[in-house]
Every structure is written in structure tokens, then in C-alpha cells.
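[Discussion] Sanity-checking designs against the backbone

I'm trying to build intuition for which residues belong where. Below is a C-alpha cell string of 193 positions. I'd appreciate it if someone posts a full sequence so I can compare it with mine line by line.
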């Protein structure tokens, strides 16, 4: 199985996107060169400041995509962020979302496409997952959607609880979600498959 690496130097750059930019940053991650398995940002787009959330959108989807939620935005992947990976089955392998809590990696590990625009069970499971993380970190849905989770600093226990919720979700949907702490990612980088 191929493994891809996001080097700590690149992690430092994406942390800056969270801490220092008032808007979202989107990028495709591509191999630095053919001989390496290091992923680096390409096609970096900034969201528009006039837009309420400063959202940006990808011009194309590659296997590994990235976007940031700056400090004013919520620390979670959105419902849409998770659905996007399912929707682009066969195209998006990993979606990397940098937030104040750390780096979320959503990997499509499915053996077949389960996305259907009319299915209600998948969106429901995603909503349950996000609500469950909210419960574990004492964040309400309203706070989450307003970005009021911004003041919350997670304890080690919070990370363990989030990890447990993510694993349950993996069993239900077969999509893998991991939240990496900044402190770990800045030292070891991120290893993706
Ligand atoms: Zn997002």
C-alpha cells in the first residue's frame, strides 16, 4: 500500500493558515516530485473576505485535498466536508482539514460507492457523529455552527473520546476519520495511506 507523508515543515505552513488567515485556504496536495512520497500544497486558493465565512472552493479534486478552518470557525469537519469525500468516491482518497483542535484526516476506505443523493441514512449518521463529538467535548450544535467552540482547548481525555467516536463511525460507515493533535503533527508530520 502506498503511503504519503506530509512533512512537519508543511504542517507548520498549514497551521499558519489556521492561525493567521482570516479566510479559508483550500489546496490540492500533490507529490513534491515523482521520486518522493511527500505531499505539498498546489493550487492554493484563499476564500473571499467579503464572504461571511471566507469560504473557498477547489477548482478540481485530486486524491488528497486540503482546507483550513481558521480560528474563528468551528473546530470540526462540517457535515458537507464528510459528505464530499463520499460523493467523490474513487477521486478523493484523503481530505485534510486543519482546525484549531488539530488536523482532521477523512479517508475514504470504502470498497464501493455508498453515496446516493437521495439517501437519508448516511447524512443522519454523519449528523449523529458530529453531535456525539459535541457531547464528548461539551459543545452544543449551535456553538459548533457559530464557531463558539473556538475558546475550547481540548484535554488529552477529549482527544481520546473523539478518537473513540471516530472509530464507532468507521464501523458504521467505513470511512476513516482521525484527529491529529498539532503537537504530534508538528513533530512527526502526517502519514496517510
Ligand atoms: Zn470545512
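Best answer:
Here's mine. Compare freely.
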Amino acid at each position: 500500500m502506498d503511503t504519503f507523508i506530509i512533512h512537519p515543515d508543511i504542517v507548520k505552513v498549514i497551521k499558519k493558515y489556521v492561525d493567521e488567515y482570516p479566510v479559508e485556504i483550500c489546496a490540492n496536495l500533490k507529490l513534491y516530485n515523482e521520486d518522493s512520497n511527500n505531499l505539498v500544497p498546489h493550487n492554493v486558493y484563499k476564500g473571499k473576505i467579503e464572504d461571511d465565512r471566507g469560504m473557498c472552493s477547489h477548482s478540481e479534486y485530486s486524491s488528497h485535498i486540503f482546507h483550513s478552518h481558521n480560528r474563528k470557525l468551528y473546530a470540526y469537519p462540517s457535515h458537507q466536508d464528510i459528505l464530499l469525500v463520499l460523493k467523490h468516491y474513487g477521486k478523493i482518497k484523503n481530505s485534510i482539514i486543519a482546525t484549531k483542535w488539530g488536523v482532521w484526516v477523512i479517508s475514504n476506505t470504502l470498497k464501493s460507492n455508498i453515496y446516493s443523493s437521495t439517501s437519508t441514512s448516511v447524512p443522519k449518521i454523519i449528523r449523529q457523529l458530529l453531535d456525539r463529538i459535541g457531547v464528548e467535548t461539551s459543545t452544543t450544535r449551535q456553538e459548533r455552527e457559530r464557531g463558539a467552540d473556538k475558546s475550547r482547548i481540548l484535554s488529552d481525555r477529549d482527544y481520546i473520546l473523539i478518537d473513540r467516536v471516530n472509530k464507532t463511525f468507521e464501523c458504521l460507515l467505513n470511512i476513516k476519520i482521525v484527529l491529529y493533535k498539532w503537537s504530534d503533527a508538528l513533530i512527526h508530520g502526517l502519514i496517510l495511506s
